[in-house]
Amino acid sequence: MKLDSDTMTATERVLASIRHEEPDRVPCYIMGIPPYSKCYKEFVERERKEELAGFFDNDANIVITPMGDYTLKYFFGADVEMAGIGVQGRGSPTYLLNADDSINPDPQAFGKLPACTEARYTTGGTIHGVKILAGGDRYTWYLDGFLKKKEDAIKFYDEYGWHADMPVHKANVSAYEEFQAKFSDRMCLIPQIGGVQLYESMWVIMGQARFAYYCRKDPAYIHRLVNDRKEAQLHILDEIKRYKPVAVFGGDDMGQKGRPLMAPETFRTFFKEPYREIFTKIHEMGAIAFNHSCGNITELLPDYIEAGLDGWQSLEPASLIDHASLKKTYGKKFLFVGALDSREISFGTPASIRKHVRAQLLNMGKGGGYIPGPTHDFLTETPLDNCIALRDAIQQLGNYPLK
User: Fold this and answer.
1) Is 367 helix (H, G, I), strand (E, B) or coil?
2) CATH number, domain with residue 234
3) Could you give the CA distance from residue 120 to residue 116 in angstroms, rounded to a whole number?
4) Are 347 and 353 in contact (CB under 8 A)?
5) Closest by alpha carbon to 324, among 345, 303, 339, 313?
6) pTM for this prediction
7) Residue 92 phi, psi dihedral angles, 5° rounding
């Protein structure tokens, strides 16, 4: 949102942070705002009662663009938004439900789980639990993969398509350019690689145990799966390049509480060189490369950075990350995005949220190179007043020089 004290546009603010310069104030990145979340429902209700008229009466706050409607994100204080491009999928997400298909496990094994309303097989090779919420929204989560065996996975990809052979959605260059011309003062738009994560979309088809097994017993098979996804990302980058971006956002969940989901040696063996190709292509278009990862991947950062990674988004406090140490070690050239605890935002008070924001700004914001925001989507029980307190704390405490 524009403040009377601003001396930069949102895009200028984000670019300064990327370049490790100190902008007028820190920019903010908000991930998702699920329609079933408390804050979303309260926002809709207050808008209906015209309690938010002060915001909506200003036409400059209505950010309906050719790339999408970002008014809600703008209300929550976002200065930057991502626009994803991915491969075109294999069709309906339920067309693989076939009781006679030998690669499908017994659907009843998952349908009987008490938390599930139903289980759904996806075209990505995974089984998701589905719960129908009170308002009719569908909440889904990962249960397992159904391509545990090498021969089943190869048969599946040969029949339904490897990622690298799938067509890529076209970049809407004219819409992107119109956004830049009309709305870049309010929001900086950054292209995002949609899906086909090298690790995250690969291990889920077989589970972690089988992934570890094949890393030891058949590393060529893991290389084949990773390289298939790498080639798909390179094709996506051919489209993203048409935007002439300053940054490209990717993602690959590689962390858990306290440590990565793999040893650094495993990362070096299977992922470092494919990521080097991806990051090199991003750098060749004059952009920086930064990735989302849940959990604590601090042990992987030396190899990740050597491969060309320029920044990390999420930085969950719950995963025992030492934010001040990270900033001290990598902060002069590395971009940090996030680091505001989603649990605190959801279950704290406006006062505790403000205290948390102040601490993380001091941990990570000095010298630029920091874009604060929630580590994840707003959680289901996050109240709207806490989201507003978060927005106000970032805007009021984030002026440079930080105090």
Assistant:
1) coil
2) 3.20.20.210
3) 10
4) no
5) 339
6) 0.93
7) -60, 135
Q: How far apart are CA 303 and CA 65, in angstroms?
A: 39
Name beta bridge partners: 193: 85
Instruction: Convert the pLDDT of each residue in 106-156 to its tens digit.
Output: 545 544 555 666 777 788 888 887 787 777 787 888 888 989 999 999 998
Domain count within the chain: 2
Phi and psi at residue 224, to the nearest 5°:
-65, -45
CB atoms within 10 A of CB 352: 14
Domain that holds residue 99: 91-146
Q: Are 47 and 101 contained in the same domain?
A: no
Instruction: Please tell me the distance from the alpha carbon of residue 145 to that of residue 366, in angstroms, as a whole number.
Output: 43
The answer on 99 and 86 residing in a single domain is no
Q: Which residues pair with 292 in a beta bridge?
A: 251, 313
Give the alpha-carbon dihedral of 311, 316, 321, 325, to 10 degrees. 50
Distances (CA, A) of 162 to 28, 210, 223, 228, 274: 37, 20, 14, 7, 17
